[in-house]
Amino acid sequence: MIAAGVPVAWLVARSAGLVALALFALAVAMGLAFSTRLLGTRRGKMVLGWHQTIMWTALAMLVVHMVAVGLDPILNFGPLAIVVPGVASWRTLPIAGGIVTFWIMLALAISFHVRRRIGQRRWRLLHYASFAGFTIGLYHALGVGSDLTGARGLVFAGVAVAPVVWLVFARILLPRPGARPAPASRPAPVPVAATQAPQRAGDREVVHA
Amino acid sequence: MRNIWATVMATWALFAVLAVLAWTRPLPAPAPQQVPGAVVVTGKNGTSHLVVVQSGATPAHATTRTSPVPAG
Q1: ipTM > 0.90 (yes/no)
Q2: Chain A partners of B25 at a C-beta cutoff of 8 Å?
Q3: CB within 8 Å: A10 and B70
Q4: Which of A16, A24, A121, A154 qualifies as a cystine partner to A64, CB 3.0-4.6 A?
Q5: pLDDT digits (tens, 9 = 90+) for B13-67
Q6: Contact B25 A90 (CB under 8 A)
Q7: Is B48 helix (H, G, I), strand (E, B) or coil?
Q8: In chain B, where the domains are located
């Protein structure tokens, strides 16, 4: 039974926002874990599947967060202020950041299903936006989140960011297990004109010297 | 199956965080006890009277919020 006077919408908004951010961090970390290929093919495929699922779940939690914010009678945000960045009059910049994060997450979640249509290059570029979305979302949470002030915010940010940063470095620095090593020396390409030209007796010795 | 698992776990996480937030919500402060005071009133003719005054101050309004949220 809900006691009278309990701000249900406000509590739901806060808890859904926290869960959404945690899931978004998990999804980003899973995507990076897959791209490093450190997990192997079988585990990598499993992580990739969970990566997509967690992304959609995070997006659903974000929608719950936004709807709850919209329903809160004290916040008094209009429906436009929830989906359009810059409309909210209170703490405009951090709230705009949260809305931008939502749109980036939506684009990312949809991109899984239209990857072939948009092409690998665009899909990859869009996926790079996830880092920006994650950073902006964290800025939103630390900027307006009433539960992430002071030390709690730093601990939450550290737990969310540390695996992502570690995996980014792993992605950049570690060699991919599946990648073939580059050949030590490649034979120089022979020009077409040279192959067609009549060879002299001493040419072969010069090339292999 | 994976989607169902994710939905169930996320919902549980949502309710768990919700319960923690509701549990740790600062309760409204109790109204201060009204203690009657007494003042000495001196009349025109020099006589003094002890007048008992009830505390009429409005108690501080406690909010249920953890942060100030102005209306937009």
Answers
A1: no
A2: 6, 11
A3: no
A4: A16
A5: 999 999 998 888 777 666 656 666 777 887 777 777 777 776 555 555 555 555 5
A6: no
A7: strand
A8: 2-53
